[in-house]
Design goal:
Radius of gyration: 16 Å
Helix content: 10-25%
Number of strands: 10
Oligomer: single chain
Shape: globular
Largest sheet: 10 strands, antiparallel
Bound molecules: manganese (II) ion
Strand content: 35-45%
Length: 169
Protein backbone atom coordinates (compact mmCIF):
# COMPACT_ATOMS: atom_id res chain seq x y z
CA UNK A 1 0.00 0.00 0.00
CA UNK A 2 1.59 3.25 -1.15
CA UNK A 3 0.53 6.71 -0.01
CA UNK A 4 0.68 9.08 -2.94
CA UNK A 5 0.36 12.84 -2.92
CA UNK A 6 -0.22 13.52 -6.62
CA UNK A 7 -2.96 15.87 -7.90
CA UNK A 8 -4.83 14.67 -4.84
CA UNK A 9 -3.84 12.51 -1.90
CA UNK A 10 -4.75 8.84 -2.28
CA UNK A 11 -3.52 5.39 -1.35
CA UNK A 12 -2.45 2.91 -4.00
CA UNK A 13 -3.37 -0.61 -3.00
CA UNK A 14 -1.37 -3.24 -4.86
CA UNK A 15 -1.79 -7.01 -4.76
CA UNK A 16 0.73 -9.31 -6.39
CA UNK A 17 -1.08 -11.72 -8.70
CA UNK A 18 -0.16 -13.42 -11.97
CA UNK A 19 3.32 -11.90 -12.01
CA UNK A 20 2.15 -8.30 -11.79
CA UNK A 21 0.76 -5.82 -9.27
CA UNK A 22 -3.00 -5.47 -9.58
CA UNK A 23 -3.71 -1.93 -8.44
CA UNK A 24 -6.47 0.21 -6.98
CA UNK A 25 -6.45 3.89 -6.00
CA UNK A 26 -8.27 4.51 -2.72
CA UNK A 27 -9.03 8.23 -2.31
CA UNK A 28 -9.84 8.03 1.40
CA UNK A 29 -7.35 5.32 2.25
CA UNK A 30 -8.09 2.00 3.95
CA UNK A 31 -10.17 1.73 7.10
CA UNK A 32 -9.96 -1.02 9.72
CA UNK A 33 -13.53 -0.18 10.76
CA UNK A 34 -15.98 -2.70 9.19
CA UNK A 35 -18.63 0.02 8.99
CA UNK A 36 -16.46 2.14 6.68
CA UNK A 37 -16.70 1.14 3.04
CA UNK A 38 -13.98 2.62 0.88
CA UNK A 39 -14.15 3.29 -2.84
CA UNK A 40 -11.22 1.67 -4.66
CA UNK A 41 -10.76 2.62 -8.32
CA UNK A 42 -9.04 -0.09 -10.31
CA UNK A 43 -6.06 1.31 -12.22
CA UNK A 44 -3.51 -0.23 -14.57
CA UNK A 45 -1.26 -3.06 -13.37
CA UNK A 46 2.19 -2.06 -12.20
CA UNK A 47 5.45 -4.05 -12.45
CA UNK A 48 6.37 -6.00 -9.31
CA UNK A 49 9.43 -3.80 -8.66
CA UNK A 50 7.16 -0.81 -8.20
CA UNK A 51 5.92 -2.11 -4.83
CA UNK A 52 9.09 -0.88 -3.15
CA UNK A 53 9.20 2.53 -4.84
CA UNK A 54 9.36 5.44 -2.44
CA UNK A 55 10.39 8.86 -3.67
CA UNK A 56 9.49 11.73 -5.95
CA UNK A 57 7.85 11.42 -9.39
CA UNK A 58 8.77 14.56 -11.35
CA UNK A 59 6.03 17.11 -11.94
CA UNK A 60 4.54 16.71 -15.40
CA UNK A 61 5.02 12.94 -15.41
CA UNK A 62 2.10 10.57 -14.82
CA UNK A 63 1.42 10.51 -11.07
CA UNK A 64 3.81 13.39 -10.48
CA UNK A 65 4.25 13.95 -6.74
CA UNK A 66 5.51 12.10 -3.69
CA UNK A 67 5.15 8.37 -3.01
CA UNK A 68 5.55 6.57 0.33
CA UNK A 69 5.52 2.84 1.05
CA UNK A 70 2.86 3.12 3.72
CA UNK A 71 2.41 -0.60 4.42
CA UNK A 72 3.66 -3.89 3.05
CA UNK A 73 3.34 -7.58 3.69
CA UNK A 74 1.76 -10.72 2.34
CA UNK A 75 -1.72 -11.42 1.07
CA UNK A 76 -3.70 -14.51 0.12
CA UNK A 77 -7.23 -15.20 -1.11
CA UNK A 78 -9.32 -16.64 1.75
CA UNK A 79 -10.48 -19.55 -0.31
CA UNK A 80 -6.97 -20.42 -1.39
CA UNK A 81 -6.55 -21.02 -5.09
CA UNK A 82 -5.26 -18.73 -7.78
CA UNK A 83 -4.83 -15.08 -6.80
CA UNK A 84 -5.42 -13.65 -10.28
CA UNK A 85 -8.58 -15.74 -10.72
CA UNK A 86 -9.90 -14.56 -7.35
CA UNK A 87 -9.48 -10.92 -8.40
CA UNK A 88 -10.94 -11.56 -11.87
CA UNK A 89 -14.07 -13.02 -10.26
CA UNK A 90 -14.89 -9.49 -9.14
CA UNK A 91 -15.71 -10.47 -5.58
CA UNK A 92 -13.29 -12.08 -3.21
CA UNK A 93 -12.11 -12.14 0.35
CA UNK A 94 -8.48 -12.09 1.28
CA UNK A 95 -6.13 -12.07 4.24
CA UNK A 96 -3.64 -9.29 4.75
CA UNK A 97 -0.54 -9.80 6.84
CA UNK A 98 1.01 -6.35 6.75
CA UNK A 99 2.76 -4.23 9.33
CA UNK A 100 -0.35 -2.05 9.67
CA UNK A 101 -3.23 -3.68 7.80
CA UNK A 102 -4.15 -7.16 8.91
CA UNK A 103 -6.95 -9.66 8.92
CA UNK A 104 -9.77 -10.42 6.53
CA UNK A 105 -11.08 -8.05 3.86
CA UNK A 106 -13.64 -8.31 1.08
CA UNK A 107 -13.08 -6.49 -2.22
CA UNK A 108 -16.10 -6.32 -4.49
CA UNK A 109 -16.52 -4.66 -7.86
CA UNK A 110 -19.62 -2.65 -8.66
CA UNK A 111 -18.60 -2.20 -12.31
CA UNK A 112 -16.79 0.46 -14.35
CA UNK A 113 -13.51 -0.22 -12.49
CA UNK A 114 -15.18 0.76 -9.23
CA UNK A 115 -14.60 -1.55 -6.29
CA UNK A 116 -15.56 -1.41 -2.63
CA UNK A 117 -12.95 -2.30 -0.02
CA UNK A 118 -13.98 -2.95 3.56
CA UNK A 119 -12.69 -4.57 6.70
CA UNK A 120 -14.41 -7.71 7.81
CA UNK A 121 -15.25 -8.16 11.49
CA UNK A 122 -12.38 -10.03 13.11
CA UNK A 123 -9.85 -9.52 15.89
CA UNK A 124 -8.02 -6.89 13.83
CA UNK A 125 -11.06 -4.69 13.21
CA UNK A 126 -10.85 -1.35 14.99
CA UNK A 127 -12.29 2.14 14.81
CA UNK A 128 -8.77 3.52 15.20
CA UNK A 129 -7.89 5.35 11.97
CA UNK A 130 -4.48 3.94 11.08
CA UNK A 131 -4.00 6.49 8.30
CA UNK A 132 -4.00 9.12 11.07
CA UNK A 133 -2.16 7.24 13.81
CA UNK A 134 0.43 5.59 11.52
CA UNK A 135 1.26 8.24 8.94
CA UNK A 136 4.90 7.24 8.36
CA UNK A 137 6.64 5.04 5.81
CA UNK A 138 6.76 1.40 6.89
CA UNK A 139 10.26 1.22 5.34
CA UNK A 140 11.96 4.48 6.33
CA UNK A 141 9.66 6.01 8.96
CA UNK A 142 9.60 9.20 6.91
CA UNK A 143 6.60 11.45 6.39
CA UNK A 144 5.63 12.58 2.88
CA UNK A 145 7.32 15.95 3.45
CA UNK A 146 10.59 14.18 4.42
CA UNK A 147 10.46 12.06 1.25
CA UNK A 148 9.81 15.13 -0.89
CA UNK A 149 12.67 17.00 0.75
CA UNK A 150 15.10 14.09 0.30
CA UNK A 151 14.04 13.66 -3.32
CA UNK A 152 14.07 17.31 -4.31
CA UNK A 153 10.30 17.41 -4.66
CA UNK A 154 7.55 19.81 -3.67
CA UNK A 155 7.78 19.71 0.14
CA UNK A 156 4.88 22.08 0.75
CA UNK A 157 2.43 20.06 -1.33
CA UNK A 158 3.67 16.75 0.08
CA UNK A 159 3.21 18.08 3.61
CA UNK A 160 -0.52 18.53 2.97
CA UNK A 161 -0.73 14.73 2.99
CA UNK A 162 0.91 14.50 6.42
CA UNK A 163 -0.95 14.94 9.71
CA UNK A 164 -1.27 18.51 10.94
CA UNK A 165 1.64 19.28 13.17
CA UNK A 166 0.68 19.58 16.81
CA UNK A 167 1.80 22.74 18.44
CA UNK A 168 3.65 22.24 21.69
CA UNK A 169 2.24 24.27 24.54
MN1 LIG B 1 -1.19 6.79 -7.29
Amino acid sequence: MQKHRATALHYDFRLEAGGTLRSWAIPKGPSMDPRQKRLAMEVEDHPLEYASFEGVIPAGEYGGGTVMVWDEGHWAPMDGGDAAKAIDSGEFRFLLDGKKLRGSWPLITTGERRWILMKRRDEYATTVDLTATEPRSVRTKRLLADIARDGGGDVKTAATGDPKRRRST
